[in-house]
Specification:
The chain is α+β, with helices and mostly antiparallel strands and about 200 residues long. It has two domains: about 90 residues, Medium-chain alcohol dehydrogenases, catalytic domain (Quinone Oxidoreductase, Chain A, domain 1, Alpha-Beta Complex); about 50 residues, NAD(P)-binding Rossmann-like Domain (Rossmann fold), CATH 3.40.50.720. Helices cover about 20% and strands about 20% of the residues. The longest helix has 21 residues. The chain is globular.
Length: about 200
C-alpha cells in the first residue's frame, strides 16, 4: 500500500521492519520524521522491563520536517515544513520530578523517553508533543540537531544544574565520548577556565 510506512521495532530479528500507518495525532502533537543511529541496547534484553510495552518503535534521537499539525498546535509556534529537533524525554509535566525541571526522571507510566518504552524515531513518520519540539536554526544540519536534545542537554544538565559549576572552579571530565566532549563545550560556554579531561 502506498500509505504504509516502515519502522524498526523491538521485534527480532533486529533488521525487521514493520509496515504501519502514520500514527494518529493526539491533540497538541506535532509529527516529524527522522532517523539516526542509537545504541540499541533494547535488542539485547531478553524482554523489555515489565512497565514497557512488549513492542515499540526504537530510536531516541529524532529530528525532521513537520508534515502535519495537531488541531491545538498554534501556528505561531510551528508551521508545516518547519524543521524540528525533538526532546527525547519530554515527561508528563505533572509529577514531582517534572515540576522540578527533571523530566528525564518522570515517574508517570507511558511518559518515558522516546524509543525507551514509548514509540521512538526509527520510523518514516512519528508523532510527538508540540512542547517536545524545538525549531532548528538555519544553517544547522538536521543530523546534528537530532542528537542535540540527548547528547548536548545531558551534558548541559550535568554541568550547569547537577554540578552547578562556577567560572572560577576547576572541573574534571572523565571520558571524552559524545557526552564528555559536549560537557567540555558547555563548561567553556559557561566561562570555566580550568577544565581537566581524562580519557584512555
Amino acid at each position: 500500500m502506498a500509505n504504509e510506512l516502515r519502522r524498526q521495532t523491538t521485534h527480532r530479528p533486529p533488521q525487521n521492519t514493520s509496515p504501519t500507518g502514520c500514527p494518529e495525532r493526539p491533540p497538541g502533537q506535532t509529527p516529524s520524521n527522522g532517523r539516526l543511529p542509537q545504541r540499541l541496547f533494547d535488542r539485547d534484553r531478553p524482554e523489555p522491563p515489565p512497565t514497557w510495552p512488549q513492542e515499540f518503535t526504537l530510536g531516541h534521537e529524532g529530528a525532521g520536517e513537520i508534515v502535519a499539525l495537531g488541531s491545538e498546535v498554534s501556528k505561531e509556534l510551528f508551521n508545516i515544513g518547519d524543521r524540528v529537533a525533538i526532546h527525547c524525554v519530554p515527561g508528563c509535566h505533572d509529577c514531582i520530578p517534572c515540576n522540578n525541571g527533571w523530566p528525564q526522571a518522570c515517574r508517570e507510566p507511558g511518559y518515558g523517553g522516546y524509543g525507551l518504552g514509548r514509540d521512538g524515531f526509527f520510523a518514516e513518520c512519528v508523532a510527538c508533543r508540540a512542547d517536545a519540539a524545538v525549531k532548528i536554526p538555519e544553517g544547522v544540519r538536521i543530523q546534528d540537531a537530532a542528537i542535540s536534545p540527548d547528547a548536548l542537554l545531558t551534558a548541559y544538565h550535568a554541568v550547569k544544574h547537577t554540578a552547578d559549576v562556577k567560572p572560577d572552579e576547576t572541573i574534571a571530565i572523565f571520558g571524552l565520548g559524545g557526552l564528555g566532549l559536549n560537557g567540555v563545550q558547555v563548561a567553556k560556554h559557561l566561562g570555566v577556565k580550568r577544565i581537566i579531561v581524562c580519557d584512555n
